[in-house]
Amino acid sequence: MFSKDFLRTKYETLNKLKLAIIAYTDGSSLGNPGPGGYGTILLETEKKVKKEFSQGYRLTTNNRMELMAVIVALEKLKKPNTEITIYTDSKYVCDAVDKKWVFGWEKKGFKGKKNEDLWRKFLIQYRKQKVSFQWVKGHAGNEFNERADQIAVAAANSDNHLIDEGFENSKDETELF
Questions:
Q1: Considering its fold, how many domains does the chain have in total?
Q2: Residue in 27, 36, 37, 56 annotated catalytic
Q3: Quick one: what percent of the chain has pLDDT higher than 70?
Q4: Choosing a second label site near 68 at 20 to 30 A (CA), which of 35, 122, 168, 175?
Q5: Domain range enclosing 157
């Protein structure tokens, strides 16, 4: 039989070895729709590693970029079942997951919902990891949220835009304007 002190020490040691991954994500759209970009910051707390990712798109929406930033954070994780806390100022993303709306949308085949392509990509990545969301107020002085915003805006303003095919191909071909 192990003593309580032995078990406590082993538990504390295992907790110290557990890597904590934190992501800060933000999306930007210069017009809605308009040129846009996402910014993703990944922090690994034990080794104090920080990585930044961003990309601009020629025509997209803010909600798409908010969601894309989260998808990129999850796609960058190398191991399944990694615990990650995602800080976002997007109520759209946070509420869709925390209030389980996205799972209902999925059951109904995303009928009538925007951004189906990205929500499907999100769910694939989400199910591979242990994800929790934390909403943060945007533009309120949070260092990493502010930085995610800066790199998202810079990506939206860059000359290196990709085509957001999910958005541009979803437009109704019969629309004249």
A1: 1
A2: 27
A3: 85
A4: 175
A5: 18-162
